[in-house]
From TrEMBL:
Species this chain originates from: Papilio machaon (Old World swallowtail butterfly)
InterPro entries listed in its UniProt record: PUA-like_sf (IPR015947), PUA_sf (IPR036974), UPF0113_PUA (IPR005155)
Top-level taxonomic group: Eukaryota
Pfam families noted in UniProt: UPF0113 (PF03657)
Name of the protein in question: 60S ribosome subunit biogenesis protein NIP7-like
Domain UPF0113: 18-74
A GO molecular function held by the record: RNA binding
Amino acid sequence: MVVEHGLEICADEIVGLGRITENTPKHQGVVIYTMSDIPIGFGITSRSTAECRHADPLANIAFHQADIGEYIRSEDTLM
């Protein structure tokens, strides 16, 4: 599962960044999936594909926008 630090997602939190779409530019909107192809959230890339492949494991690779737990955590304030 993806764990966020504030509003950023680190490469090591996505289990070593198993897969990433080729030629994804910096600041591109992305959907984040588990290794079983289950969508768990979305965000904006903070690095291009090439930068992600060579980034430090603690480097931020995406800015968190929402995830599958967002509704549950905010349910009381949304209704």
